[in-house]
Description:
CATH topology of the largest domain: Cytochrome Bc1 Complex, Chain A, domain 1
Helix content: 40-55%
Largest sheet: 6 strands, mixed
Distance between the termini: 57 Å
Radius of gyration: 24 Å
Order of helices and strands: EEEHHEEHHHHHEHEEHHEEHHHHHEHE
CATH class of the largest domain: Alpha Beta
CATH architecture of the largest domain: 2-Layer Sandwich
Amino acid sequence: MVTSLRPKPGPVRSYRFPRFTDQILPSGIHLIIAPVAKLPVVTVLVIVDAGSANDPAGREGAAALTAGTLLEGTAHLNGAELAEMFERLGTSVESGADWDSAFVKITMLSERLDEAVTLLGQVLSEPGFPEREVERLKAERLAEILQLETEPRGLADEKFSEFLYSPVSRYSRPDEGSAESVSALSRADVEQFYRARYRTGSTTVIVVGDVSVNNTRTLVEKAFQDWASGSASGQQLIATARTSQKSVHIVDKQDAPQSELRVGHVGLPRNNPDFFPTLVMNAVLGGLFGSRINLNLREARGYTYGASSYYDWRRGPGPFVVSTAVESEVTAPALREIFLEIERIRSDRISEEELSLARDYLDGVFPIRYETTAAIASALASLVIYGLPADYYDAYRAQIRSVSIDDVLEAARAHLHPNELQTVVVGDAKVIRDSVGALEIGELWVHES
């Protein structure tokens, strides 16, 4: 009989994140430049402290709508003309907003850098916010919400946040807004949000690629010279849980053959000092294909095609979530196994093999994440958004390798809270209600979808 063995890995190659300069311009703009001359390509990423966490109450979705409308025209160019100019320069361009920041990103050949950055300066310093385009993007978002309400996976994600966070928390509502809040938005709201948040002192410009530091600084200073100075005012973020007691929420989808499951609690902010032990701990629990939750629910019991857990890292405490979909008949058994796995990783030390698998994966995939100018720019943006140290990427692999079995156990006990777990099930209530209720994993509520 012929057998084969997995080849032994070679020695770990050293990795060094590209060098970069970091400076504050007289205008207040934070400028980061990373010369990477492998190819004649440059990415310029502008991030602004104008993420969805800053949406005004009742106007949730303003950040996303403002960022999306930036590319729909300037004071002197309509949307079609602006798109054509970027296209003539061979420039890819996109804009958007997440919880913590808004961004505009362009990538082009280095020979087109001057023209492209000049055009980018116009986009950011004198946007037109055409009424027609504002209404079009609103309509697109409202159509997405209608579709989401019919799709169990997206509905489960949205309802989990709603039931997890206090109603006064911005995190309890979708980052791009609800049907009610988006419908209420107007062009005036977009312009007001822009004037309040889009300022030089709240902006970082990141340039990565085939560039020189001095020429790039001069170019950025000139391109953004007409932008409003000053910094956006701070806004308090509330990220408290709706309840400290376990609860179960069934969102009824009549005749649904499957149940979408979400189990979790309020997690950690990105700059928590236990980030690395928690990252490794979650990899063992549900962050990898070979993790405990996936091997249990998929391989051992055949309940699902895949199950995972993750911490949604944000400036504020984002959620810790276990996510999967199972047939309706095994909803309760699947939930029971999820709860047992969370308890198990808090009770017993993981094995050396599990630790090695998690660390090898997190260490091994790290360098290949930063092979393009756009990826390097996004990595540098994370340093700014989350206040990470300048040597974070150089030290990352050593930090992962330093996590021990005891560190994982301590992280699990400190940052997994079984008594606070919130459970959301989107499925057929008449099929699953009794069996889920019999688990006694929290007060049971049933909601219409």
